[in-house]
């Protein structure tokens, strides 16, 4: 049994052309918008998993639009067009442009959707919190004015709407990144089958395995954070406008404090990118060595070369882990910026506001 699925049942499956018809259709294809948002379409599968061990007959078929054949052929067509266009214009072909031609419209739609609601909800939630604090500054008791209850209900509603929207966009981007992984892996696999034996020297087996098992997973992280490249600046301008209405010129000082951290973050991100390239090179070397060891295992056993290859493998793994640890340290530093840079900017903003002779209140802080 593996991951809740009975592997032994795999032996009883009919591995022929009719097996695909025996797989139940995916209920996601016929689900309505409410079932998609609430994931009601998968509840039947979850209940079945709670009552018995799952086997392969219980798994649903993939959606028609997610099949590797369809996605791979479509990406191959775009890639062939890119090769022709690049050859005509005497430049290197770009896979990013090819992926954007194929998936760009869906990504831009979800990103625009996220951008609009991110700005509206962020400002709305901040404004609602400020109104609640301001309300309880002037109304000590609940019986004096029940408006605070309505404001609290509005705040909870906005938070609920934001959670639903984030979930929809996250699932949409995850689905899109999965399609990009499948299409890219299909493209790599078909290219590998067409390679000649002599041409495999610069492109090692370990490099191909690392591409299909590790590098393609970067699509998940990229699509998750890529929209915030333009959401951040837009939200900054909107925030400056509303802060100016509340605290005046001190808002600019607070925002400038926040912007000071951006060059440092860019510098650390560039270092992380260089380290990741080195990690990829060392991972390729290690995986390639492991493939060679497995291929020549009988020879290694016959000549008792196990200690040599054991030390060699450990050394390559240590070199790889050294760079992975360095990247992890820098990544943790970048993550820490999300925790303290906004707080420092808020402190500087309030401090400048007080130094300019203003009186600070709880509603101003919120």
Automatic annotation (TrEMBL):
Source superkingdom: Eukaryota
GO CC annotations, alphabetized: membrane
GO MF term list: ABC-type transporter activity; ATP binding
Localisation: Membrane
All residue ranges annotated as the ABC transmembrane type-1 domain in the record: 114-366
Gene3D superfamilies per the UniProt record, alphabetical: ABC transporter type 1, transmembrane domain
Membrane topology listed for this record: Multi-pass membrane protein
Keyword field contains Transport: yes
Keywords, alphabetical: ATP-binding, Membrane, Nucleotide-binding, Transmembrane, Transmembrane helix, Transport
Transmembrane segments: 112-136, 148-169, 223-244, 250-269, 333-356
Pfam family, one: ABC_membrane
UniProt family annotation: Belongs to the ABC transporter superfamily. ABCC family. Conjugate transporter (TC 3.A.1.208) subfamily.
Name under which the protein is recorded: ABC transmembrane type-1 domain-containing protein
Organism: Aphis glycines (Soybean aphid)
Lineage: Eukaryota, Metazoa, Ecdysozoa, Arthropoda, Hexapoda
């Amino acid at each position: 049994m593996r991951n809740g699925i009975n592997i032994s049942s795999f032996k009883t499956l009919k591995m022929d052309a009719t097996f695909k018809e025996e797989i139940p259709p995916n209920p996601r294809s016929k689900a309505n918008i409410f079932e998609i948002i609430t994931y009601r379409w998968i509840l039947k599968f979850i209940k079945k998993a709670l009552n018995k061990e799952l086997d392969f007959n219980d798994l649903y078929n993939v959606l028609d639009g997610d099949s590797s054949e369809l996605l791979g052929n479509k990406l191959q067509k775009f890639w062939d067009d890119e090769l022709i266009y690049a050859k005509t214009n005497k430049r290197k072909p770009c896979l990013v442009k090819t992926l954007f031609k194929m998936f760009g419209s869906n990504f831009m739609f979800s990103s625009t959707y996220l951008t609009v609601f991110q700005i509206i909800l962020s400002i709305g939630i901040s404004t609602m919190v400020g109104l609640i604090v301001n309300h309880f500054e002037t109304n000590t008791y609940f019986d004096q004015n029940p408006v605070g209850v309505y404001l609290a209900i509005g705040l909870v509603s906005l938070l609920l709407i934001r959670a639903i929207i984030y979930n929809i966009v996250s699932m949409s981007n995850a689905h899109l990144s999965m399609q990009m992984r499948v299409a890219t892996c299909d493209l790599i696999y078909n290219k590998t089958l067409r390679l000649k034996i002599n041409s495999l020297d610069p492109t090692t087996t370990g490099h191909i395995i690392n591409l299909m098992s590790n590098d393609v997973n970067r699509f998940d992280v990229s699509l998750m954070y890529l929209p915030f490249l333009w959401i951040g600046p837009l939200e900054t301008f909107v925030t400056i406008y509303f802060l100016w209405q509340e605290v005046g010129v001190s808002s600019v000082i607070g925002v400038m404090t926040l912007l000071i951290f951006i060059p440092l973050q860019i510098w650390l991100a560039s270092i992380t990118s260089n380290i990741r390239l080195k990690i990829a090179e060392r991972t390729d070397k290690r995986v390639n060595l492991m493939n060679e060891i497995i291929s020549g295992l009988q020879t290694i056993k016959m000549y008792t070369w196990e200690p040599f290859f054991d030390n060699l493998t450990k050394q390559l793994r240590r070199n790889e882990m050294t760079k992975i640890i360095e990247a992890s340290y820098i990544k943790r530093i970048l993550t820490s910026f999300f925790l303290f840079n906004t707080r420092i900017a808020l402190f500087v903003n309030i401090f400048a506001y007080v130094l300019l002779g203003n009186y600070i209140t709880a509603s101003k802080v919120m």
